[in-house]
Amino acid sequence: MTKTPNVPKLDLDALKRKLDERFSDGFSKLSDIPDPSLLLNAPKAAKRIADAIRNRERITLVGDYDVDGVTATSLTVLFFRELGYPLDVIIPNRFVDGYGVSPSVLERVEADLVFTVDNGINAFGAAEVCKERDIDLIITDHHTPSDTLPDVYTIVDPKLADDTYPFKEICGAQVAWLVLVLVKKELDVKINMGQYLPLLAMAIVADVMPLVGINRAIVQHGLKQMMTSTLPAFTIIREFLNKSSLAAEDIGFQIAPRINSAGRLEDASIALKFLTADTPEKAFKQFELLNQLNDLRKAIEADVTEEAIAQVKEGDDVLVVAGEDWNEGVVGIVASRLVRRFGRPAIVLSITEGRAKGSARSIGNVSIYELIKSQEELLEGFGGHMMAAGLAMPMDHVVKFKEAINAIASKIDPEQFIPQEELIGELTPSTINTNLLNLLDAYEPFGEANPRPRFLAIDAYVESVNYMGKERDHSRIGIQLEGGIEKHDLIAFKQRYKMSTNRRLSCSYTISKNEWNGKVSIQMMLDRLYDEN
After folding, report:
1. Dihedral angle at the C-alpha atoms of 15, 17, 18, 22, nearest 10 degrees?
2. Which residues lie closer than 8 Å to 480 by C-beta, 6 or more apart?
3. Which of the chain's ends, N or C, has fewer CB atoms near its CB within 10 Å?
4. Ramachandran quadrant class, 447 (left: phi over 0; alpha: psi -120 to 50; beta: rest)
5. Together in a domain, 166 and 55
6. Where residue 533 falls among pLDDT bands split at 50, 70, 90?
7. Is beta strand 355-361 parallel, antiparallel or unpaired with respect to 388-394?
8. Structurally, how many domains does the chain consist of?
9. Mind listing the pLDDT tens digit for each residue in 421-445?
10. Which strand (E) or helix (H) includes residue 463?
């Protein structure tokens, strides 16, 4: 536990003023989405795809196995389904093919045109193969490019140096959607592009894009449309969540892990079949498989996390851990766990047959991509963005890499490592009511760059301590705030706190709306315990 910080006391008016500061330019609307033609090379890409359709050419789509990649692939499949045009689809298998479009993936391709979604910005080998085979390769991606680019037909990526698209922090599914908007225009067909907003919302949340500007507008509308979408996958999602409305956290904590589990442990085609199923029965069958894989993922993740924690050297500025045959599909999640626990960027590597491959996650304003890039000569490959990246290297380079990257990180201003989700204040007891829920609802969706407000409770009185869940591994602590008269439930998932009643505690927490059997109640979600005053 750490020392209790000093924060201002807040009533509803003061809280509203603080939240308004996050949106000093006002809330964006869907109509504020910039013209897709402003995205560098997007018109050229769209025209080539439209020409291929008009000329009855063979087209292959290469996606990615994370949520962003699977949703980008899914909305493209659904778009081509509406066109009635055949589309060959490949999502590389993490364990067989590795990441993205590659020479090995192209061995399975017979096409005149290949285009990617959410991958390809560093696909130099694939570019050479396509040149040799006279295949036009279009890359659509959102990851940070290297200093040199693959030699392909065209590249659409808002991170390109010459790109002037007004809103650059968009995910791979958004890039794909913007290109398809232009394809629709080129073909002059009637397709409702707004029907794909729920998929875009899922991708934006899962890929941790900032929930400000047009991203907020898309997620806000996408979540609403999930409640009415006729797409069978969303029928199943609604039944599973059983809520009257959806929040970004429902996607981030409930749905995205299940979509991700397919690519992490087996094959992303399971998730693709779920999202593109044409009947609820087919969607339900795939969702059951995703649930089973997610349960397996949790068990594997717990084991790897335990082994990774044992390797951590707490004095390091960047945590670098590696294990023999750790499941590649969970190393990204484990990296996130280490970041949360130790407050430092983390790189988790799985070693197989002399090769270390893994994922990195960052914190604060530290660019893990730039740190990794600084050791490019030690790597076989890498890619990603400021907060997350993937990389591979010979096993023999791991120790040198760890030492070198920490030497660079030691020169970074310590302030850059501070998490951006700071405590917003201490709520007065009378403020915690349905009016508070209504106020918070107005600033949804919460997530990256618009974090759910974290509040401080000082010297709250502990009335009860109970445990929930099948394994009794969740805590429900009944507390009464200092100066208040009502009892509130303080919920801690995956934490079994053993504490006496008739004592006081200080903690940070977020406010959550709990829906059960049609009844809505307020619950506090425990964030961190602090030393008692």
Report:
1. 130
2. 460, 461, 463, 486, 487, 488
3. C
4. left
5. yes
6. very low
7. antiparallel
8. 3
9. 578 999 999 999 999 999 999 999 9
10. strand 454-468
**Rounded Cα–Cα distance for residues 255 and 204 (Å):** 13
Handedness of CA 169, 419, 264, 243 (dihedral sign): negative
Query: Do residue 154 and residue 212 come from a single domain?
Result: yes
Per-residue pLDDT at 152: 98
Question: Is 337 or 71 the better-scoring residue by pLDDT?
Answer: 71
d(CA 472, CA 127): 53
Are 150 and 177 found together in one domain?
yes
Which has the higher per-residue pLDDT, 496 or 159? 159
Residues, the chain, total?
533
- Rounded mean pLDDT of 26-44? 97
- Determine contact, residues 43/73, Cβ cutoff 8 Å: no
Question: pLDDT tens across 333-372, in order?
Answer: 999 999 988 989 999 999 999 999 999 999 988 999 999 9
CATH number at residue 94: 3.90.1640.30
Beta bridge partners of 203: none
In the block, which residue shows the tokens 């400021």? 386
DSSP 249-288: HHIIIIIHHHHHHHHHHS-THHHHHHHH-SSHHHHHHHHH
